[in-house]
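Schema walk-through. Below, the input block comes first and the output block second. Nothing else is stored per chain. Lengths vary across the set, and this one has 144 residues.
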Amino acid sequence: MSETHATVAAEAPAFPPGRYGRRREPGRRRPLLLALTVTVLLAVLGLGAAKLYYQYGDPEYQGEMISYTDITDSRVVVDFRVTVPPGGSATCLLRARSHDGAQVGSAEATVTAEPGQRHIRTRQEVPTSARPFIGEVLRCRPAG
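--- output ---
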């Protein structure tokens, strides 16, 4: 016969004393700690998103391919246009690819707009390690 106490509610399970160790009290909820953790996590994610947007997502810096000319075994000349904020400057990454699609050369070009102007048209030579088939503008970002 098992031992039961008169103070234990009938629906609560009865455990033999000393057999299972001390019963833990139900854990205290810590809403302040949870709120603080969520706030810090959201702040870190927001800062990371802002940094990545500033670095890669600024839509005011756009490079537009116009043409590629003067193709030789060691270079291609890329003619392109860049849209920047008025009077701003940008650094654009250019690349040359061979007929099979492999990258055979790349170059960075920094361009600056005249005060009040937003569009810059320029030409840049891209040195290559093999004969290129095409020259292209990969991306433009703020200079600096």
